[in-house]
Specification:
Blueprint lengths: L8 H7 L1 H21 L8 H11 L6 H11 L5 H22 L9 E2 L2 E2 L1 H4 L2 H20 L7 H15 L4 H10 L11 H26 L4 H28 L2 H4 L5 H4 L5 H23 L9 H12 L3
Antiparallel strand pairs: 1-2
Helix pairs in contact: 2-4, 2-5, 3-7, 4-5, 4-10, 5-7, 5-10, 8-10, 9-10, 10-11, 11-14, 11-15, 14-15
């Protein structure tokens, strides 16, 4: 494989073509499942359903659903069940984006290349849409379409609730807000920002990767390997995000760049510099790859993801 740091755009496209095709297939499938799970209605509450659909069906990489379906495939889990769990996770992720974009949080007008939910509708509707997506996710996970075994469904609900809550994504968002100038501007060092991103971003990525072994009732060693892979992958993904926020354009990113610097946030780039941050992401990507050795060739697409997250341009 060509050196990742010097890979041309043409070579990058060729190298990641199988991954791109697989991610597109998953994205289309999860969008179809989300559309089925959140149908439009004509009753007065239909406005909030419209806002939920607007945000959930807005596209995006669908990385987390991809990780669910392909971790599940390692253990020969029903593709339909895996897709249902993937859709539930994407609802939680989408709710976090809807709320993250609100004026009280990041105050952003652009998400996935189009107006954010509160700009397209209004702030109150966006808050309710996020609430609706979060609660719908657990309704879906608790249903038989997610798994035939109620004990497995309970474990999935428990794991996702922990990943999304006060000691997970929500807690990480709180730490992130406290580090902004407007909330006291507490400067974070590398261990602190690492912990914050492991909570804010990493916990949902970890759920995506361990959902497969949970559904497949896999041995603890297999689950531990995917948990370690997810830990390094999630942090590499976030560092790459920090780099893109510094170097990307709104057209490439589908959102407003430079927001972190404008808010006075500590980032991996501000702590390590651009090249230092890129090198840290590459190191984490290599570590993630090592955790997949036990799965052999069946994990090749997960290996490609670990390389892709540090090479992506959006």
């Amino acid at each position: 494989m060509p050196d990742q740091g010097t890979m041309s755009n043409a070579t990058r496209s060729e190298t990641y073509a199988p991954l791109a095709a697989a991610m597109t297939e998953t994205a289309e499938a999860v969008s179809a499942r989300l559309s089925d799970l959140i149908p439009p209605v004509s009753e007065p509450e239909g406005r909030v359903l419209d806002a939920m659909r607007y945000s959930a069906l807005a596209g995006g990489k669908r990385l987390r659903p991809f990780l669910v379906t392909h971790s599940a495939a390692l253990f020969h889990v029903s593709p339909s069940a895996a897709l249902t769990v993937a859709a539930a996770l994407e609802m939680v992720h989408t709710y976090s984006l809807v709320h993250d974009d609100l004026p009280a949080m990041d105050d952003d007008d652009l998400r996935r290349g189009r107006p954010t939910c509160h700009k397209q509708f209004d702030e109150a509707t966006a808050i309710l849409a996020g609430d609706g997506l979060l609660t719908k996710a657990f309704e879906v996970l608790a249903g038989p379409a997610a798994h035939s075994d109620p004990a497995v469904r309970c474990e999935l609900v428990w794991e996702l609730a922990n990943a999304a809550g006060g000691h997970g994504m929500v807690g990480g968002q709180m730490v992130d807000l406290m580090a902004e100038r407007g909330h006291g501007g507490v400067a974070l060092d590398v261990p602190e920002i690492t912990r914050m991103h492991q909570m804010k971003t990493g916990r949902l990525i970890t759920f995506a990767c361990v959902a497969g072994p949970i559904m497949g009732k896999a041995p603890a060693r297999m689950r531990a390997c995917l948990n370690a892979y997810a830990r390094d992958l999630g942090l590499a993904f976030q560092i790459a995000d920090d780099v893109l926020d510094e170097t990307g354009s709104a057209q490439d990113l589908g959102k407003t760049p430079g927001k972190d610097a404008a808010a006075g946030k500590t980032t991996f780039v501000s702590l390590l510099g651009l090249e230092g941050a890129r090198e840290r992401a590459r190191l984490l990507s290599d570590q993630a790859l090592a955790h997949l050795e036990v799965f052999g060739d069946e994990a090749d697409l997960l290996r490609a993801v670990a390389r892709y997250v540090v090479e992506r341009k959006n």
